[in-house]
Amino acid sequence: MTPPVLLMIALALPIVATLLVAALGKMPNAREAASLIVGVLLLAVNVKLAAHVFAGQDVSWVVTTWVSGFDFAFRIEPLGMTFALVASGLWIPTTLYGAGYMRGHHEQHQTRFFMCFAVAIFAALAAAYSANLLTLFVAYEVMTISTYPLVTHHGDKEARRGGRTYLGILISTSIAFFLLAVAWTAGVAGTTDFHVGGILAPALAAGNISNFQLSILFALFAFGVGKAALMPFHRWLPAAMVAPTPVSALLHAVAVVKVGVFTILKVCVYIFGIDLIRETKIGIPLAYLAGFTILTASIVAMRQDNLKRRLAYSTISQLAYITLGGFLATPDSIVGGAMHIVMHAMAKITLFFCAGAIFVAHHKKNISDMKGLGRKMPWTFFAFGVATVSIIGIPPGGGAWSKWFLAVGTVDAEQYILTAVLMISSLLNIAYLLPIPIRAFMSPDPNAVSPDRDAVAAGQPDAPEHSVLTDSDPVIEEAPLACVVPLCMTAAGSVALFFLVDPIYQSLRTLVAS
User: Fold this and answer.
1) Over the stretch 127-139, which tens digit does the pLDDT of each residue have?
2) 20 to 30 A from 500, CA-CA: which of 200, 336, 397, 482?
3) Nearest to 389 by CA among 352, 440, 351, 418
4) Residue 292: count of CB within 10 angstroms of its CB
């Protein structure tokens, strides 16, 4: 098959999955099998596409022309291909995990859940493949609308309130800022197409836009892409934690927030151009805002007892690493930011899988209630620890590489305060994540029943030594296998990325190759 045909098939497969899930709604096994099969096919198609894209071939498809010079079109470049591989690759374990979680927790409306899930994957791919800002904006909005029913899945008052915050912030920022930025770009550049080196440098040279106006336009993009969760437009993300845990995993790793930070990087590289950003220094004020977001969100995370809320604020902080890379616009910061999309996705989806498994198996949401739980759920908490290592940014977690390149980028930009921010942030990552698995394994279980040693010693028949649950002899009570297997897969993936980083690095270096 030719690359354009493969591109069409890749976009069609999530829609096919949506229709199959709807048709098989009354047959759960067939419904979820269809989702998994389509997910595997989609990953295979993207792997084939990646061979063409990373070899330098043009892979594009013009669907229609809206007005002269403005197309609804797709064209895959290395950054988009990387994001598409992340989205399609993680769809498979998330679908398997979703089936185990939704059944294990006896959730309602499971068919609607998997349908919206497939549409969200379509939106992620459409954004990844977008050839211009107009196509990207449409995909961005489809992502918002398709995930709203997932956020409000439970249908109760709390879910509706969280959904209003989610929809309100994302729609208002995209209409008030993002759409305005797209229109302004089209006006001054005469196009919204993505080009290596950007499209705004000629407009600046021609006097169509001033340095000050360029700064305002850059800020409109930064705040208009609300899915990047840059403060103060971040509240939608913790509000969305009312959703089922597979949705949280989708929001944080596979789709929503990754579409946000991907958009920021895409705009930096292909609309402004990294040379223009560096020369005009328009990214420096926003880089410090990203640094503020990194530290503030980490500090807030430390104060959260609810595990999902702690992970949500952790995500806000980690996303700011990626936007920081884009705003600094050095070769290493761009590569580090793009690489962190991959590394954070694999690690954070593992952490949310673990949070859901804990809830399914033991109905615990708060970290303070998880002491000693690691001896009952060893696979889950070991996976949590592995993913934590990657988020912190130390070997053998894949996050060690992305954080290294981001730190080098701050040095290249001579922004040493931001270098210190990254170092302090990693220490804060240790403080709010590492104690969770340590306490789960090392602390005594407060619910364990200690045997009456005197009664046992006296040989009383009603107090046999092994008839009660003790701290030293816990019963293994893991979540269903469909939950545990995916979290082990993604935890292993976080380690594998540390050793397989070179192909990712070489592919992403083409973003900044002169």
Assistant:
1) 999 999 999 999 9
2) 482
3) 351
4) 14
